[in-house]
């Protein structure tokens, strides 16, 4: 707020607690749908002279742009985005435009710098976000808006993953993905709950920390697997299957939080989780029927209308992805689950590869923006002041997660090499953990120093993910030298045979297409 000469005018404004007409102040108060709260209105002072202003770098990015702001008693900042006007006028949020420019340009610079250095560009995106974010030079004014736009990165990443979905390949790993994924979450919750109880803490806090730590980053891991072209490898399929299961389990964990926080009973929690499971099964059943009936006809229609250009087909693909994701979110599931399901639906048709080619540029842009927004959550000063504790916490988390995940995978008959691959790939804490942590904080389940510790550990673990992927080949090479890795198990052999059959089938289809084209 230093870039303004603040004029604080005490006034009463409306904080809406339920759905109401945004233009009807008196009606909302009369119907008891809102409460009155004293806030401060901050407006830019146009009378500042050049002599009174000292140049600071962040002033260039955080200009007032004539838009007043409101600050409540808890120092929450609200930006007025919908001015009351007699006639409809075009309104621009120039702050958001400026913030998006800063985020995209900084992510580009970070990616280019790390590409020149021969390092993963994802690290450049994360560090660029930390530099321009609130914990760095504070060039970003509207964090909520930027993070909301950046969520499209996760949506399109999972949509692209769904387009590459192979039921044949995942059928081999369904046991370790579903049962093993649930077992990992359960083991983390039991281990942390028991540890916290023995240390004299609340068991509910320990159970939450276990659920929190069990989450891995679908977006970040998927990006690395795609870069290394290992999504179709056995360890890649096991990793992807487990990550999808975790995404599905997020809704159940949200239903569990009120129980752990003491705001609802156990019966209500079980009822809520059962309702979510029934909703999930019904939602997937409806999508399965649509994918066999309406969707092929719709896609062929878009192709026929897009004979001159792919613009309409590209727009229709994006709209379909967002529509299914939105429906999933409205049903109490997640946007990520819906976007993945949309991709899987198109993957059952003959246009999966064509759709992927249309979506890839959009996916890459928003994925870079998403990773930069994750970097913005990293508070550089906090990390520096508590670097010893955070580094120790991250190392502990990586070691424990690698051991537990690798042990579970090993228990399903996979060899040491695949188990270590999967364990190290999923050793970070995922971006969904930020959402879980925020919800737990609102329920007063996690507060104070524990909240900051978990936040810092999550952010730092995401930053160290590129290093982990760089270490995997070295660990595998060391295992070969020490003869830790045995020959392929029956799981690996069966998976390779399935791959050979599917590849030969694809080649046969290509040859038939060529022969028909020649004739």
UniProtKB/TrEMBL annotation:
InterPro entries noted in UniProt: Cation/H_exchanger_TM, KEA4/5/6-like, Na+/solute_symporter_sf
Domain Cation/H+ exchanger transmembrane: 105-470
Membrane topology, from the record: Multi-pass membrane protein
GO molecular function: potassium:proton antiporter activity
Chief localization: membrane
Organism: Glycine soja (Wild soybean)
A GO cellular-component term linked to this record: membrane
Keywords from the named record: Antiport, Ion transport, Membrane, Signal, Transmembrane, Transmembrane helix, Transport
Signal peptide interval: 1-20
Localization of this protein: Membrane
Transmembrane parts of this sequence: 96-117, 146-163, 175-196, 208-226, 238-257, 277-299, 364-384, 390-408, 420-438
Name of the protein in question: K(+) efflux antiporter 6 isoform C
Domain of life: Eukaryota
């Amino acid at each position: 707020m230093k870039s303004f000469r603040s004029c604080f005018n005490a006034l009463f404004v409306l904080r809406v607690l339920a759905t109401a007409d945004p233009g009807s102040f008196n009606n909302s108060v009369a119907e008891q749908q809102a409460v009155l709260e004293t806030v401060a209105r901050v407006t830019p002072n146009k009378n500042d002279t050049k002599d009174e202003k000292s140049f600071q770098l962040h002033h260039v990015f955080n200009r007032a742009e004539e838009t007043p702001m409101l600050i409540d008693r808890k120092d929450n900042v609200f930006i007025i985005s919908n001015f009351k006007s007699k006639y409809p006028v075009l309104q621009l949020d120039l702050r958001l435009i400026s913030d998006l420019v800063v985020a995209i340009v900084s992510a580009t610079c970070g990616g280019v710098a790390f590409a020149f250095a021969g390092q993963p560009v994802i690290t450049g995106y994360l560090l660029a976000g930390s530099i321009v974010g609130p914990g760095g030079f504070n060039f970003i004014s509207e964090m909520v808006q930027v993070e909301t736009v950046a969520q499209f990165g996760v949506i399109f990443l999972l949509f692209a993953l769904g387009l590459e979905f192979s039921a044949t390949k995942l059928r081999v790993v369904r046991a370790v993905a579903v049962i093993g994924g649930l077992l990992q979450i359960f083991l983390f919750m039991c281990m942390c709950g028991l540890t916290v109880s023995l240390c004299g803490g609340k068991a509910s806090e320990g159970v939450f920390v276990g659920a929190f730590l069990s989450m891995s980053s679908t977006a970040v891991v998927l990006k690395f697997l795609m870069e290394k072209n290992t999504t179709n490898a056995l360890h890649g399929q096991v990793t992807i299957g487990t990550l999808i299961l975790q995404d599905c389990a997020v809704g159940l964990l949200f239903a569990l939080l009120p129980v752990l926080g003491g705001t609802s009973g156990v019966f209500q929690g079980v009822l809520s989780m059962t309702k979510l499971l029934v909703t999930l099964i019904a939602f997937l059943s409806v999508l399965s029927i649509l994918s066999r009936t309406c969707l092929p006809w719709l896609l062929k229609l878009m192709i026929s209308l897009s004979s001159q250009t792919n613009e309409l087909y590209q727009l229709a693909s994006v709209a379909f992805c967002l529509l299914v994701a939105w429906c999933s979110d409205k049903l109490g599931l997640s946007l990520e689950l819906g976007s993945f399901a949309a991709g899987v639906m198109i993957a059952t048709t003959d246009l999966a590869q064509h759709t992927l080619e249309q979506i890839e540029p959009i996916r890459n842009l928003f994925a870079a923006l998403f990773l930069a927004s994750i970097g913005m959550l990293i508070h550089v000063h906090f990390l520096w002041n508590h670097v010893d504790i955070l580094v120790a916490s991250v190392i502990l988390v990586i070691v424990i997660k690698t051991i537990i995940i690798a042990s579970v995978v090993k228990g399903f008959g996979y060899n040491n090499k695949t188990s270590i691959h999967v364990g190290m790939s999923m050793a970070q804490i995922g971006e969904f953990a930020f959402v879980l942590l925020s919800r737990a904080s609102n329920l007063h389940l996690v507060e104070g120093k524990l909240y900051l510790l978990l936040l810092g550990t999550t952010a730092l673990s995401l930053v160290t993910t590129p290093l982990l992927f760089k270490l995997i080949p070295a660990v595998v090479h060391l295992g070969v030298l020490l003869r830790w890795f045995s020959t392929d198990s029956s799981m690996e052999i069966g998976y390779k045979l399935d791959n050979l059959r599917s590849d030969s089938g694809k080649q046969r289809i290509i040859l038939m297409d060529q022969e028909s084209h020649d004739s």
